[in-house]
Every structure is written in structure tokens, then in C-alpha cells.
Amino acid sequence: MATEVAEAMEEGRHLLVQAGTGTGKSLGYLVPAMLHDKRVVVATATLALQHQLVERDLPRLVEAVSQIKKDVPGLDTSYAVLKGRSNYACLHRIRAGVPDDQGTLVDVPMGSMAEKVLELREWAEEESEAGGSGERDNAPRHTDREWRQVSVNHRECLGASKCPFGAECFAELAREKAHRSHLIVTNHSLLAIDAIEDVPMIPDYDTVVIDEAHELTARVTQAATDELGVSDIERAARRASRWTADAAGDPAGDLEDAAQQLAEAFEATAPGRIDQVSTQLSDALVLVRDAARACLSAFPRESGGEGEGDAGRTQAKGMVQEVFVNAERMAAGSQADVLWLGEARDRFPARLHVAPLQVWGPMRDKLLTDKTAVFTSATLMLGGEFGAVATSLGLKPTERIGHQVATTEADDALPWKGIDVGSPFDYGQQSILYVARHLPQPGRDGLGPAQLDEICDLVDALDGRTLGLFSSRRAAETAAEAVRTRLPHLTTLAQGDAQLPELAKQFVEDPHTCLFGTLSLWQGLDVPGDTCQLVIIDRIPFPRPDDPLMSARQRAADQAGGNGFMQVAATHAALLLAQGAGRLIRTTSDRGIVAVLDPRLETARYGRFLKASLPPMWSTTDPALVRQALKRLGQSA
């Protein structure tokens, strides 16, 4: 892998590397990145991998390389971590206070979170004195709401030149360090904002290594998704009123009136994807857009007098600016966007959302055309091929080097290579894929009696040590309740019973434990050893039929002459299945079974594609054989 990555960087061509768990893929790209003669950015999806790179892999690599540094003239081993501004504590907000709804600075936090906010303030001051990073990940335990009391986003920031604490700013110091560094570690979202949203966040670089690349399109989509709620507009108007009171007319009041018009349009609009925007909703969005624009124009210009460098003014204007940008995008009605209205639930009112129909075009035009990209993950080959993932990233299957009808000679071609470096695991010997073909096909009503019987029988045979991955929170809770009732001697945990780290800790410590949950467990749990010897997947994880974005993408693929189901729904399911099955074997000594309770994996035409996306486990549909294997595993553990 290291050789292939080095060649790709040297030749300036794109590379996809499937590298299974345990291959040491981070060093497989860090070594050539360190040796490359130009700056390299490494973008990850998860906090865990970012920590691993910065706290373990890079320090070890720098120490090893330092021994040969004299033999490699000009070798630069400097590196830095770069995150979005809101990931760093803001010294101005901590020392000057937090603007309230009227834009007035409040020095003392109010309510039950006061103690925690004060703790975060003290921590940030200690970080500043000690020359620390001020990063959220290093802060005392806290909630999102508490962190917002000590941080700002890019629109709320005064700017280093206007802020009295600009010279000490954690975010600015991180950017300065990144400008001095050869290797920069960041995340998918910041990469997307920098490269695709055209907001300069990262110093100029030559090559980007994208780890956990199977998540990139989802993260890019997330970064390019905006939403607008009536409360956002009303709050922005209240904040702006203090600064626009002297303007002609009542711009803040007009913005509040526009919010009411939008609220009425929401009431007249059915939740879900909006293919044809009604006149009422269109008019309301235009009204909000124009009122926000007028409100922005009414803010007094900064001229060194009152309001200069005022956090309340900056935050108020930033809130109105965000309303304007989102309303303008939604009112435009672009065919490149998908618009939908979220359903109002409990205390959460309806919100309007907008997301890009596809991201492969912008990724191709704004990232892959200018930079060299190395994509790596344990799951890049779906259906046994790189084509599906390559296409989603903006690369054409016909541009693959060695393709029979390659178009790599065209002026706009982006040649790429795909390699699978294998795995240290012998999946055929270490694991079994069991498809419960005898069960009925899953229905819309969740788990039925047959599925619950199967789950309890499998868990009972192994006596615990089970990770259940379910398509919905309701299914996970139903299964957990059934196991608790029928197998009371086991400890059965369900997602939501406690925070995920606490659940994972308890799961590891007690072998007679089952942990049942949804999506965050499919991809974010690493429990090697005897802790997890059975992974149960209740159904093939297709996107919901009413998912606004996925259904729009599937329809667009059909209209373009493709197979929307295979290109969107089946690809999505294959990726999640591979990630879920990957929870089982984490070391060369692990043994276990992945049980899929959905017979369509064996009976449907697309089942072959899905199975080809999984690790090469020994496969069976025999329930008696599987129960015997589980009993042997339970006895030997």
C-alpha cells in the first residue's frame, strides 16, 4: 500500500485502496505522505481515527523518521491538526460574556449549566496559559449546549484583527501552525467546506489522503445541507432589532412578519420531499430572503466607533446573514437541490431542509481536478468492484487504469487506480455468515414473532456476547425487551439506556451481555476478543422509501437511464452491511458469526451483489449448524 500511495503522489493520479482492519493502513499512507515533497492533507471521518493519528501513529512515525532524517535532505516531519472554528474555545466569549437574545453581553451563565460552563471557562484559561490547543476534544465532559457558551462559529467570530484576544486565539494559532506544517490532519467536513464550498479553511496543499472514504459522500452532503426554521428567523430579527432600530422603516420587524408568513406556508405544506414548490411557500421564502437582505443593509457600518468589534453585533449580523443565505438558496428552486419539509414532533416545530441532489459533480470539478486524492477504507469494493464507490466520489469507471475501454487519454479524464491490499484475517476460518432463509421477509410492522424467536435462540446458544444491529430504534428496543424477558440471567443493553461509551464499556467488561442498537453501532464500535462473537442484523439496511434525499437520488438515476435501486438503495445497503459485518472480526484471534435475519440476502436477485460486498466469510443457511457452532464458541470462551 505504501508503495502504491507513493507512486500515486509522485505521478499525480488518484488511487482507491481497500485495506481491511488490522492492515496498518494509516502508516501505509502516513509514511509516503511524510516523504512527499509537498504538503499533504489527511482527512478522516471519525474522532477516534483522528486521535489515533495524532496521539499514536504520527509521534511514532516522527520518532522513527528522525533516525534517518540526516539521510533524507530537506525532510519535513512537521504536522498539525485543523478543525472548524467552533471546535475551539473562544477566549473573547469566555472573558467578555455571551450575548443574550437582545444582543447584550451576559457575563455569568444562568441556570443549571452554570457550574459546567464555569468549569469549561477555567479549563480554557489553563489551556491558554499552558500553550494548549483549546480543542473541544480535550475539554472536560460537556453537552453541545454547554460548549456553545464557550465557542463561536465562523459567522459569530469578530476576526483576529478586531478581537482583543486575537493574538491568543486557539483557532488562529491552529491555523498558523497548519500554515507552517508539512502534514495537516483534518476532517471530511472541513475538507468539503474548503474544497467544494469555496470557503478557504485549509492552507494550500498538493495531495489529500481521505481515510474512511466510504463516508465521504455522506459527510460532503451533510456539509452542503442547510435548514431553516421559523424560530431561526424570529431569533435573528430580535437580535438585529438593537442594531437596526435607527434605520428607515422597521427592517427587523419586517423580518419577523416574514417569519409569520413562512409559518403559515409550513402549515399548508405536507411534510416530506417537495417536488413542486407551492406559490405560497415560494412567496414566503422570497419574502424572508428580501427582508433578511434589507435587515443586513440596515446594520450600521463599522467605523471604529460604537459597535466596532462588538460580539453582540457580530453575532446578530451573522444570524441574519445565515437566514438570508439559506432562504436565498431555497427560493432559487435549483434542480441541483432537493427540498423537503421535516415533520413537526413534540416540542420541535417543522423545519425546511435543502441538500444537493448529488455531490460527485462538485467533488470532481472542485477537488479531484485540482488535487491528487488517495481514498482508503476497509469497504471500498461493493459487489466485488470499485465502480460504485468510484462513481459516487466523482471518478468514472472507464477512467480506471487498465480498463478495457479506458478514456484516460481524454483532456478532462481523471485516471485512477484501485487496489485491494487484502486483510490479515482468514475470514473463511474465523467467521460464518448465516442467512436465516427460513424466516418470513421483514415487514413494515417491525420485528415479528419468528424474528424474535430466532434472536432469543441465537443469543441463548452463545449465552450473551451479542451485538444486535437494527434498522430502527423501535426494533432494537423490541428485541432487547424480548431477550430480557426470556433470558433474564443475561444483561441486555439497548441504545439509549446510557451514553454509548458507557454501554460499550459495560459490554466489554461482562461477557454475558448483549448490546442492541442502531446506526451509530453499525460503524462506531470496536470490541475485539470474546466480547462480541455474534453480530445480529435484523434486515438489509435499505434507505427508508420516504427518505427525501435518497428517493430523489434514486429517481434521478432512473431518469438518467440507470438503475436507481441498484445505484442508490442497494449501494447504500451494501456499504452499511459491510460496515456492520465488520464489527465481528477485529483481530487474528477473533471467532464468530454474523447472522442476517433477512432471507432476501439469499433469495433476491440483488442478494449476490450484497454478499459480494461482505468479507469472504464461510456461508450457511442451516439454523441447526449455526446453533451448534455458537454453543461451541460459548463453551470455549
Automatic annotation (TrEMBL):
Keywords: ATP-binding, Helicase, Hydrolase, Nucleotide-binding
Family matches, as Gene3D superfamilies: P-loop containing nucleotide triphosphate hydrolases
InterPro entries: ATP-dep_Helicase_C (IPR006555), DEAD/DEAH_box_helicase_dom (IPR011545), DinG/Rad3-like (IPR045028), Helic_SF1/SF2_ATP-bd_DinG/Rad3 (IPR014013), Helicase_ATP-bd (IPR014001), P-loop_NTPase (IPR027417)
Region forming the signal peptide: none
SMART domains found in the cross-reference section: DEXDc, HELICc2
Region feature Disordered, mapped onto this chain: 124-144
Cofactor dependence: [4Fe-4S] cluster
Pfam families xrefs: DEAD (PF00270), Helicase_C_2 (PF13307)
GO molecular function, a single term: nucleic acid binding
Boundaries of every Helicase ATP-binding domain copy: 1-265
GO biological process entries: nucleobase-containing compound metabolic process
EC number(s) given by UniProt: 5.6.2.3
Domain of life the protein comes from: Bacteria
Comp. bias intervals (Basic and acidic residues): 134-144
Family matches, as SUPFAM superfamilies: P-loop containing nucleoside triphosphate hydrolases (SSF52540)
Enzyme class at the top of the EC tree: isomerase
PANTHER family to which the protein is assigned, alphabetical: DNA REPAIR DEAD HELICASE RAD3/XP-D SUBFAMILY MEMBER (PTHR11472), REGULATOR OF TELOMERE ELONGATION HELICASE 1 (PTHR11472:SF34)
Family: Belongs to the helicase family. DinG subfamily.
Designated name of the protein: ATP-dependent helicase DinG
Organism: Nocardioides ganghwensis
